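[[Per-residue structure]]
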Amino acid sequence: MDFSNFNPAEQAHMTKVIEKRQMQDFLRMYSNLVEKCFNTCCNDFSSKALSSKEETCIMNCTEKFIKHSERVGARFAEANEEAMSAQNR
């Protein structure tokens, strides 16, 4: 984003707002990851430790979730770039 037409105080404020939003988005994604993988993989509560099956499931679930998030982010960036180039024409 271009904040060059804002004064320094407004630029600092906008930067803080964006950083706060990014942190909220990250925490939401992390929370969703934990909830989804826990509900999918953890179903034996007879021990404090994860079984090897549960641990493998958690690793696979986490890996898939992160790859999915990266792919969605990349597609969003591509769409945003296309929209910006179309806007500049």
Remarks:
- The chain is about 80% helix and 0% strand.
- Residues 52-88 form the longest helix (37 residues).
